[in-house]
Amino acid sequence: MHQRLLESYSVASDRFDEMLAADGRLRPHWRTLIDQLENLSPEMLRRRANEVRDAIASDGVTYNVYADPKGANRPWELDLLPHLVSSEEWDFLERAVAQRARLMNGLLSDIYGPQSLIAEGLLPPALVFGQHGYLMPCHGWQPPGGVHLHAYAIDLARSADGTWWVVSDRTQGPSGTGYALQNRQIMARAMPEALRDMHVESPHRYFHTLRAMLTRLAPSEGEVPLIVLLTPGPYNETYSEHAFLAHTLGFPLVEGVDLTVRGEQVFLKTLNGLRRVHAILRRMDDDYCDPLELRADSALGVPGLTQAARLGNVVIANSLGSGVLESTALHGFLPAINERLFGEPLMLPSVASWWCGEKPALDYTLAHLDDLVIVPAFSSMRMQPVFGHALTGTARRRLIESLQLQPHAYAAQEWVRLSQAPVMSRSGDYRLMNRTISLRVFVVADGEGGYQVMPGGLTRVAPRQRRDVVSMQQGGTSKDVWVLREAEQWAPSAVEVAQGVNNVTVIKGTVDVSSHSGENLFWMGRYSERVKNLARLLRTTLEYTLDGQSESRGMLGSVSWICSQLGVQMPKSEPRPTITGLQQSLQAAVIDPSVPVSVATQLRQLANAAYQVREHLSLDNWHALTKMPAMVQERIHTPAAAQHVLGNVIDACSGLAGHALDDMTRDAGWQFLMVGRHIERMANMAALFDNFLRLPPQRQTAALSWLLEAASSIVTYRVRYRRTPEWLPVLHLLVFDVSNPHGMAYQFRMLQQYISDIAQQLGLLSMSIPTHLSSQLEAMNLNEFAHDHPNMEQANARLVQLMRDAVSGGYMLSDDLSRHYFTPLTAPVSQGV
C-alpha cells in the first residue's frame, strides 16, 4: 500500500520524520492524504502543482530577496503537499504557545514598568539595557488594556525524539500571517477534496479576532476607530503580504509619509484632509518608527509617534520596544521567569541556550563547540547561525576569539537536527523527497487578557543544500499547515456579527483613501492609458510596414517622423528608413525595458503604481495587472509576432478600463484614477495631432487613415461617413465631436466633470485649465479649416496652439493635483455621520 508514491522517499535516521513512523509506516493522520494522492495520476499531480504556481503568479504573491537575480518581486513558493498536524498534538501546541505569549506580554510589562525581574536577579540587566532592542523612551507607559504584545509568532523545531522546541520569538511585527492565509486560499483551489475530507480547521478566526481586538482597544472616544497597517514600503521583503493583509482586514495600507502627528495625536493624510488614526498595526521595526525619539536617520517613520503612544492617543501593535524580547539570549531565563510571574512551569521549552555574557556559559560553549550553534544574542546583529562542528582551522580560531573578546554579543544553542517532511519533486516526476522544516505559529491577543492561536500557521522548508538553516532569504519554500479537527469549524456568532454592523456611522462611513494611494491611483490611470496609446501607435505603424501598397510605403517616412517626435526611438541615419530598419525599431519599442518610451518600460511603471494600491483593487483587477508585464518579456523576431503581442496588451488595457468602470467604488481614489486616464488621453491625442499638423498638406492627406487608427477612431469614421478619410470629417471626429471617447472635446468635457466632482467633495482645486481649453475649442469654426477657406491658415495656427496648450495644460493640471491633494497639510476633518 502507498508503494507507488513513497518508493523514492528516504528517511534520515538522525531526524524525526513528520510523515513516517520509526518503523516506516504512515502516521495515522497522513493516511487520508496519501490515499488521495495515490489515486491521482502523475499528470494530474503535475497539473495541480502547476495550478499552485499559476495561482501564486496571478495573485501576485511575492517575497523580495535583496540582490536576487530573479528580480525584486521574487515569486512566493508553495509546495503542493501540506504539513499535517494531528488534533491531539495541536491541542498541546495551542495551550503551550498561548502560555508563552502571555509570558512575553508579562515580561514586556515588567521590563518597561517596575523592572522587578531585574531587581530580583531573574533577568540580567545587560540583556535588557545592553542591546538596541530596549528603547528607553518607551519606559513607563502602559498601553490600553495592558496589552504590549498584540500579535506574536514563534518558530518551532522538532528534535529527533519528536519533541517540539522553541527556536526564536517574533515580537515586533511578526510576518507570515498573510502568507499563511494565501497558502490556504491557494491550497483550497488545488486540493479541495482533501481539505474537505480531512476536516482541516480554518485560520480565519485569527483575523477576525485581530480586527475586533484593535477596534476594542483603540482610544476612539466615540469616533469610529480608524486602524491602519504601517509598512516600510514596496521595497520591503514582505510588502506583498502587507498589501494582502490590508486588503483582508480592510485597513488602509500606509507608509510613514502618509501619517503625521498634530497635537500629540496621529493623523492619516487622506484626499479628504487629515483623519485621526486610533490604532496602527505596524510591520516596521521598532527603532525606525519615530525619527524624533528613536532613530534619527530613519526616513520611514513618523516624527512624534512615540509621544502620541505614550499618552495613550494611539494603539501601536505591537508596542514600541517589543523587539527587546527577540534576543535568543533570553531563552535560558524564561522558565524561572514564568514560574515567578504565573506560578506554573513553561510547557514549551526553548532550545537549550547559553548566553555567553555569563562566564560559566562561555566556558561551556568553548568546551562543547562541536555540539552547539552560535547565534547573535541580539536581533539587531546581522549574523547567520554558525554551526560549531562545521568550523575548522582559521575560521574556528576566529570564532573563538570573537567569543572571548565580545562574549555578551553571542549566545549558544544546542544543535537540534530539524525534522523532515515530504515535498513534491519540482522536476515534474511522480515522487516525494525529504526536506527539513520549521513551523511558525501565530498568536493574537483577544483584548481581554487572553490569547488565541491561529489553527495552522506557516511551515518553512529548507533548500536542499542547507539542511539545518530554514530561511526564505536563502531560497526556502513554504507549506500550508493543516490542523486536523473533527470538531465543527469556527464561524462568527450572531453576537459577533451584530457587533460588526451595529454602528450607523460605520454603515455610512466613507473610504479613507490616503494621499499616497490617491497619487498612485492617479498614476495608475495615466500609465494604463499611456501603455494603451503607445501599443496602438506601434501596432498601427507596424501594419503599414507590412502593407505592400505603394501609398502605404510612401507615407512611412511621415509616420516614422511622428513616432520619433513622440519619443519612440526610430532609425536616425536615413531620411527615408528602410522597411526592415523601421520594423526593428518598432519591435524594440515593444520589449526593450532600457528604452524610456517602450511598452515594457510603461508596463513596469504601471505595475509599480498598481503594486502600491493593491488593497484598492478587486482580485480580478489584480490578476489582470499581474499578467501584463509577462506579455513583453520574450524576444520578438517578426513584425507579425510584435503585432500579436501589442494586440494582447491593448486587450489587457481595455480590460483594466472595464474593471475600473465595473469593479471600483466611486470614491475619491476612483475619481483620481479616471482623471489620470483622461489627462493622459488628452495629452497623447494633443501631441499626436500637433505633430500631424506639422506635416505638409499632401502628406497629411496620405496619413489620415493612419491617424484615425492611431487614435482608435477608424471604425467610428467608417460607420459614420462610409467614405475614405477626408480632412474635415476627420478633424471633427478627433477634435470637435463630444461623443467620441477618444476625441479632444470629450476629454475636455470629462475632465471638467471629474474635477468639478473632486472640487465639490474635497475643495481647493480650480477648473480653469479644462474650462479654458473648452472655451478655446468652442470659439473655433469647423468651416474655417476647409482648404479653400480664406481663414484656413489662422484657424490651423489656433488649432496648433490648442494642441500645445492641451499638452502643457495636462502637465499643469497634474502638478495642481499633486500640490493640493497628494501632500496635504490641512486641518483635521470631522467624522460625523
Automatic annotation (TrEMBL):
<dbReference type="Pfam" id="PF04168">
    <property type="entry name" value="Alpha-E"/>
</dbReference>
<feature type="domain" description="DUF403">
    <location>
        <begin position="514"/>
        <end position="822"/>
    </location>
</feature>
<dbReference type="InterPro" id="IPR025841">
    <property type="entry name" value="CP_ATPgrasp_2"/>
</dbReference>
<feature type="domain" description="Circularly permuted ATP-grasp type 2">
    <location>
        <begin position="82"/>
        <end position="462"/>
    </location>
</feature>
<dbReference type="Pfam" id="PF14403">
    <property type="entry name" value="CP_ATPgrasp_2"/>
</dbReference>
<dbReference type="InterPro" id="IPR051680">
    <property type="entry name" value="ATP-dep_Glu-Cys_Ligase-2"/>
</dbReference>
<dbReference type="InterPro" id="IPR007296">
    <property type="entry name" value="DUF403"/>
</dbReference>
<protein>
    <submittedName>
        <fullName>Circularly permuted ATP-grasp superfamily protein/putative alpha-E superfamily protein</fullName>
    </submittedName>
</protein>
